[in-house]
Specification:
The protein is built from three helices and no strands. It is mainly alpha-helical.
C-alpha cells in the first residue's frame, strides 16, 4: 500500500459533520413547515450552525496534514 493513513482518517472525520449538517438542515426545514413566519431567524441560525459544522470538517482536514 502506498499513501498515508491520514487520508482514511479524514474520510472518517468527514462523516460526522456530514451527518450533523443533514440533521441540521432537515430539522430547519421541519420547523419552517410548522411556523413559516419564523423563516428569517431560522435561516440565520441554520447558516451559523452550518458554518460551525463545516469548521469541524476543516479541522479534520488540517489534522490529517499535521499528523
Amino acid at each position: 500500500m502506498i499513501g498515508s493513513i491520514a487520508t482514511v482518517g479524514y474520510g472518517l472525520a468527514a462523516i460526522g459533520p456530514g451527518i450533523g449538517m443533514g440533521i441540521l438542515v432537515g430539522k430547519t426545514q421541519e420547523s419552517l413547515a410548522r411556523q413559516p413566519e419564523l423563516a428569517g431567524p431560522l435561516r440565520v441560525n441554520m447558516f451559523i450552525g452550518i458554518a460551525l459544522i463545516e469548521a469541524l470538517a476543516l479541522i479534520g482536514l488540517a489534522a490529517g496534514f499535521v499528523f
